[in-house]
Structures are given as structure tokens and as C-alpha cells.
């Protein structure tokens, strides 16, 4: 057998030192290429090729089929002046910011609560995780009913005039409904990550702190929060990535309305087929990709150094 | 960070949640603090009560769904969420069954989900094995980073060219949707598997190879069975992601006859928008499989998510 790997190599996976020593003499078993092939093949076919195609189309006036002409950077230039697209970006980024904050605050508090000495802990955890397994579009339909029938009915009987009509029909309030439902459905996964973080804090730390007379709030601020900061970073990055692509829940609740008040970037891109501006929306997609990357890099920059994992 | 990938972790983290007796099962997260012993018996009732009240926000929408589904069409049309069904009837379930052609839609969802689960486990495990065991080879290392890039490409960016491409390749059907589900979780799964694989001692493999086993046999007889805990995690998230997805099937599948359960629920927003009882019965039937799977595999869901996050 020519493929026996040295233990050091396989364990660390980063054999910087013994690469030249052992690597060049051994031959790789051809079966490994076979193992790798399916992953590379479907990835190339389903992501790389479409990405390149899409980018190429962003310089054309294609409508999705038939003939097209090269238009250079015209798509990108007119995007800057397109009120519809600009407002989609403002909505998507604003919505993501608000949702990240709301979801993380609630998820963290729930995780704290679930690690306290409570009764029914397992049952409560089962319930709080439940939304994670429910389809976004379906729960959005359920909440659409609640927002347009139940909530106005309750508000009317209580005499609250401002809520007595559906908030989904109000272009200044509809986004709140989207934040609520998105939070409902994404708090569980965020909460589970915080739970994992809280478990790693040894109990004696709190013991010592309370012997020194630290109050519950001081313990939270000086012990718990610093020790879970790495998990806050993960949750913020994962959350932002998710919310920027928001689609299912918005389609289910408002379908981008009223008007275009809650149209996300993903939705505006998808309109490229029905709207006959395929090339134009591909330019939009390219810009969206760039912005996603920039946001990810900014997040990593800000949080680098603060994330204390091994701690 | 990488220590969480040891083979024992899922079982260890999972044991607390076997969901039968709340008293014993809740110990998972709070075990570190229980060791202090001092107040282990005292229950924190204020927190328990607050959490119980919060859990209503999860339960009430689901209970209202059940309540609405049990009404007759005549009673449900007024959209009153809190009035109890009188008379109680299951007719809306049979009506929803026929309207959505439930058996066919269920078969479509089940097919996509089954292919995704099997594909995600096998393809990413194979790729991870090839990459980890040949890390010193440039091709394999670069392949890893190539696949990882997918984590930064949002689906909306490549969606439209994908729709075109799947159309050309005659994959604008459930099989195409399943392939896309596999591709978009490839990066994350390969990362999980390779982290896990690095913790498997190479000595095990060497002894098998000395006995004359080929790479192919070593993988299937030794490595793949050892990956079972991680495969369970990957499989459950593949199931949930695939079963609940709306965006990809709604964009890719062109023939409405081949549509999945979540996508079909749209009909209650357009054609049958006043048949609340039928709509909610249909929502419940579409949610039920995922909820049932969750209740039986809770410990994997909960430990799996936290593991993935710590990577």
C-alpha cells in the first residue's frame, strides 16, 4: 500500500514540516481522486458555472432568453439611480441589523434562563427549539393570518385604534411583522449556540464571584458576557449571512408589499425573470455578492481579537 | 475548539435530552453549576415562570393552527382565532388532502429530502476523507478552499443562471432541487466531516491496511461507520433544510405537478384564501413530518447544531 499516511500528517492536517520529507516520495491512491470528484463536479456545475455565466450576463441587456447585446457597464451605472433597487438594499441591510440585535438579545436571555435552576427544563427547551424545525414559508402564512385577523380583532376590543387594522398593510409597520416572524423562527438555533457557550463556563467561577460579593448583574457583565463573546461573534456572523438572504418569510408575509416597502434584495433579483431585465438583475446580483463579502470582512475585522475561543 | 469533534461528544452532549422526564433531562446545561451543591435543590421559580410565559409565544401560533383546522368551513370563515370549534370536525384535513393532492406532494418532498440526506452525507464524507488524508497535496488542499468558497456565495446571486442551466440539463425537477440542496450545504458538511475525521487515529487505518484492505474498503468498512455520529447530525440538518425549503423548489421546479409541500401551501393565499380551516389543516400536515422527526431525534438536533457552531 502506497498511501499509508504518517500519524502526524493526518492528525493535524497541516504538515508544514514533513510535507517535503514524506509527501514527495508517496504516491496518492487514485481512489482518492474518485472520492473527491463528485463534490467538485456538482459544485462546479451548480455554483461556479452559474456564477461565471451570471457575471458575464451582467454586461448584457439579456432578458433571460433569445438575443442580447453587450452593453458594457450600463447596467451597473443605472443601478445607482434605481430607486427600487436602492430601497431594497436599505430595507435588507436595515432589517438584518435590527433582526440580528433582537434575535441575539432574546436568544441570550432564553439561554441564560434555561441554564438557571428551573423546573421543566427539558420540556421548555423542547418547546423553545421547536420553531427551528418549522418551514419558514408556512409559519409566515400562519402569522399572516394572526397579523391580519387576530391582532386587529384584539386591538379593536381593547380600543387601540393604531393596531386595529393589519400591520401588514401599513408600509411603515410591515417590516416589524417580518422581524417578529424571522425572530420567531431563528431564535432557536441562536439560543442553542449560546447554551453550548454557557455550558463551558465552570461553576466555580460564579461560586468565587459570589463569595467576593459580586451581584448577579455584575457576574453577568464581568464573567458570563466576556466568556461567551466568541459565541456572540458566531451568532452575529451566521445571523447576518442568513438575514441578508431573507426570502421565504417575506414572501409568505407581505410578498414585498405593501408596494415595494418590504422587498428584499433576493426578491428583487428573482424578479429578473418575470420582469424581463435578466442582465440588469445579474448586475444587481454581482453587487449583492460584493456587499455580502464586504460585510463579512468588516464583521471579521471588528471582532478579530475580541473573540476569545480557547479562553 | 477542535476538541468538540471527538467521537464521544454527540452522545455525551445528547444524553440529557431524551425528553421523557423533565427532572433528569434538564441537567445538561446546568450540570457545571450543580456541582457547587449549595443550592442544588432550590428551584428558581421566577425564572421558571417567565420562561413558561415566553413559551406561549411559541405554542400559541401552533395551538391556534390546530384550533382553526378543527373547525367547519362555515365557522372558520369569520377568522376568529380563539373561538373553539363547534362542532369539532376533521373534514378540513380530508379536504386539504385532496386539494393539495397530499400523497403526491408528500412523495415529492420525501424524494427530494431522501436524495439530499443521502447525497449530503456520502458526497461530503468522501470528499472530506480524500482531503484530510491528502492534505499535503496541493490539489486536495485547494479543493477544500474551493468548496469552502460556497459559504460566501449567497444562493440568490447564482439563482437565475441556475434556473437557466437546470432547464437546459432537464434538471428543472425534484432531482435538480435535491442536487442544489446538496451543493449549498457541501461546504459546511465537508468542514464538519474533515474536522471530525482528523480526530480519528490513523493507527486504526494502518492496521487495516496492513491486513491488505484497499482505500475503498478502508473507507466503507472503517471510516464511514466511525463517522456515524457526525453523519447523524449532517443527516438531520439535511432533512430539515430540504423538507422546509421554499426558495429552491419554487424557483427550479417548472412543473407544478412536481412541487413540494411547502410550495403548494401558496394555493391558500390565492385560490382558497377564505378557507382558513382547510389552509391550517394543510399547514399542519406539511409541518407534521418535521416536528415528528424532531421529537424523536432531539438530542442529535441539539448537540449537532452546537457542534457545528464551534467549528
Automatic annotation (TrEMBL), chain A:
Where is composition skewed (Basic and acidic residues) in this entry?
15-25
Please give one Pfam family short name.
BPD_transp_1
Annotated localization: Cell membrane
Ranges of residues in domain ABC transmembrane type-1: 89-299
Instruction: Tell me the keywords, alphabetical order.
Output: Cell membrane, Membrane, Transmembrane, Transmembrane helix, Transport
InterPro entries the record matches:
ABC_transporter_permease, MetI-like, MetI-like_sf
Q: Which Gene3D superfamilies match?
A: MetI-like
UniProt GO cellular component terms: plasma membrane
> Which residue ranges are recorded for the region named Disordered?
1-25
Q: Which residues cross the membrane?
A: 31-59, 88-114, 126-147, 173-201, 222-240, 278-298
Membrane topology type, per the record?
A: Multi-pass membrane protein
GO BP annotations of the record are:
transmembrane transport
Give the main location.
Answer: membrane
Tell me the protein family, please.
Belongs to the binding-protein-dependent transport system permease family.
Q: What is this protein called?
A: Sugar ABC transporter permease
What organism is listed for this UniProt entry? Brachybacterium endophyticum
UniProtKB/TrEMBL annotation, chain B:
Q: Which domain of life is it from?
A: Bacteria
**Positions with biased composition (Low complexity):** 1-29
**Region described as Disordered:** 1-38
- Which keywords label this protein? Cell membrane, Membrane, Transmembrane, Transmembrane helix, Transport
Q: Which InterPro entries match?
A: MetI-like, MetI-like_sf
What are its GO cellular component terms?
plasma membrane
Name all ABC transmembrane type-1 domain ranges.
Answer: 106-297
Q: What are the subcellular locations of this protein?
A: Cell membrane
Similarity field = Belongs to the binding-protein-dependent transport system permease family.
Q: What is this protein called?
A: ABC transporter permease
Q: Which organism is it from?
A: Brachybacterium endophyticum
Taxon lineage:
Bacteria, Bacillati, Actinomycetota, Actinomycetes, Micrococcales
Amino acid at each position: 500500500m502506497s498511501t499509508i499516511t504518517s500519524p502526524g500528517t493526518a492528525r493535524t492536517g497541516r504538515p508544514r514540516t514533513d510535507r517535503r520529507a514524506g509527501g514527495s516520495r508517496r504516491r496518492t491512491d487514485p481512489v482518492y481522486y474518485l472520492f473527491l470528484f463528485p463534490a467538485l463536479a456538482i459544485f462546479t456545475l451548480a455554483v461556479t458555472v452559474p456564477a461565471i455565466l451570471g457575471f458575464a450576463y451582467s454586461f448584457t441587456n439579456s432578458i433571460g432568453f433569445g438575443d442580447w447585446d453587450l452593453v458594457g457597464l450600463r447596467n451597473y451605472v443605472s443601478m445607482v439611480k434605481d430607486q427600487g433597487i436602492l430601497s431594497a438594499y436599505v430595507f435588507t441591510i436595515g432589517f438584518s441589523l435590527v433582526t440580528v440585535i433582537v434575535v441575539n438579545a432574546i436568544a441570550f436571555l432564553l439561554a441564560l434562563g434555561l441554564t438557571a435552576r428551573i423546573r421543566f427544563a427539558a420540556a421548555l427547551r423542547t418547546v423553545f427549539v421547536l420553531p427551528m424545525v418549522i418551514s419558514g414559508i408556512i409559519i409566515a402564512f400562519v402569522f399572516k393570518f394572526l397579523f391580519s385577523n387576530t391582532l386587529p380583532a384584539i386591538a379593536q376590543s381593547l380600543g387601540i385604534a393604531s393596531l386595529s387594522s393589519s400591520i401588514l398593510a401599513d408600509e411603515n409597520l410591515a417590516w416589524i411583522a417580518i422581524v417578529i416572524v424571522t425572530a420567531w423562527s431563528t431564535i432557536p438555533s441562536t439560543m442553542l449556540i449560546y447554551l453550548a457557550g454557557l455550558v463551558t463556563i465552570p461553576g466555580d467561577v460564579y461560586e468565587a464571584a459570589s463569595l467576593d460579593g459580586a451581584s448577579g448583574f455584575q457576574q453577568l457583565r464581568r464573567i458570563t458576557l466576556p466568556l461567551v463573546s466568541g459565541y456572540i461573534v458566531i451568532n452575529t456572523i451566521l445571523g447576518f449571512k442568513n438575514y441578508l438572504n431573507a426570502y421565504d418569510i417575506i414572501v409568505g408575509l407581505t410578498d414585498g408589499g405593501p408596494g415595494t416597502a418590504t422587498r428584499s434584495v433576493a426578491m428583487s433579483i428573482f424578479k429578473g425573470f418575470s420582469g424581463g431585465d435578466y442582465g440588469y438583475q445579474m448586475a444587481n446580483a454581482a453587487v449583492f455578492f460584493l456587499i455580502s463579502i464586504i460585510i463579512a470582512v468588516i464583521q471579521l475585522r471588528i471582532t478579530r481579537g475580541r473573540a476569545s475561543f480557547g479562553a | 475548539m477542535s476538541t468538540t469533534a471527538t467521537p464521544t461528544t454527540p452522545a455525551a452532549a445528547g444524553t440529557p435530552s431524551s425528553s421523557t422526564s423533565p427532572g433528569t433531562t434538564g441537567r445538561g446545561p446546568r450540570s457545571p453549576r450543580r456541582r457547587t451543591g449549595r443550592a442544588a435543590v432550590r428551584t428558581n421559580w421566577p425564572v421558571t415562570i417567565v420562561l413558561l410565559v415566553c413559551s406561549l409565544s411559541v405554542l400559541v401560533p401552533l395551538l391556534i393552527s390546530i384550533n382553526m383546522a378543527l373547525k367547519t368551513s362555515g365557522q372558520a370563515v369569520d377568522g376568529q382565532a380563539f373561538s373553539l370549534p363547534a362542532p369539532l370536525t376533521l373534514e378540513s384535513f380530508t379536504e386539504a388532502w385532496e386539494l393539495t393532492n397530499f400523497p403526491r406532494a408528500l412523495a415529492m418532498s420525501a424524494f427530494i429530502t431522501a436524495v439530499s440526506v443521502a447525497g449530503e452525507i456520502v458526497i461530503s464524507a468522501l470528499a472530506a476523507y480524500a482531503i484530510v488524508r491528502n492534505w499535503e497535496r496541493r490539489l486536495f488542499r485547494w479543493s477544500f478552499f474551493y468548496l469552502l468558497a460556497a459559504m460566501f456565495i449567497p444562493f440568490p446571486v447564482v439563482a437565475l443562471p441556475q434556473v437557466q442551466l437546470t432547464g437546459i440539463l432537464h434538471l428543472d425537477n425534484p432531482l435538480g432541487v435535491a442536487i442544489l440542496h446538496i451543493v449549498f450545504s457541501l461546504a459546511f458538511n465537508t468542514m464538519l466531516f474533515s474536522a471530525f475525521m482528523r480526530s480519528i487515529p490513523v493507527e486504526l487505518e494502518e492496521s487495516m491496511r496492513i491486513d491488505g484492505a484497499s482505500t475503498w474498503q478502508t473507507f466503507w468498512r472503517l471510516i464511514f461507520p466511525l463517522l456515524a455520529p457526525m453523519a447523524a447530525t449532517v443527516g438531520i440538518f439535511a432533512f430539515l433544510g430540504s423538507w422546509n425549503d421554499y426558495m429552491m423548489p419554487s424557483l427550479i421546479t417548472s412543473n407544478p405537478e412536481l412541487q413540494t409541500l411547502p410550495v403548494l401551501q401558496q394555493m391558500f393565499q390565492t385560490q382558497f384564501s377564505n378557507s382558513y380551516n382547510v389552509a391550517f389543516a394543510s399547514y399542519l400536515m406539511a409541518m407534521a413530518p418535521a416536528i415528528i422527526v424532531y421529537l424523536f431525534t432531539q438530542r442529535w438536533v441539539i448537540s449537532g447544531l452546537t457542534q457545528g457552531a464551534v467549528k
